[in-house]
Specification:
The chain has 63 residues and is an all-alpha fold. It has two helices and no strands.
């Protein structure tokens, strides 16, 4: 489960970089905004990844 979240996060970062490159080439603010929002979503997903890792390790110790 956690590996799939990490793979999805890497894909989001790659997509964000692609959007920002296109925004720089075409001088479009909307693509830059979209790239920034995707990057923020990737960062939030990474926070969830670490929180879930800590939660799963805690639950494994309790059992």
């Amino acid at each position: 489960m956690l590996v799939s979240i990490l793979i999805f996060d890497v894909a989001l970062v790659a997509w964000s970089l692609h959007l920002m490159e296109e925004a720089f080439e075409h001088r479009e603010f909307s693509l830059m905004l979209a790239g920034t929002l995707v990057a923020l979503a990737a960062a939030a997903l990474l926070v969830v990844y670490f929180l879930m890792g800590n939660c799963v390790s805690y639950l494994m110790q309790v059992s």
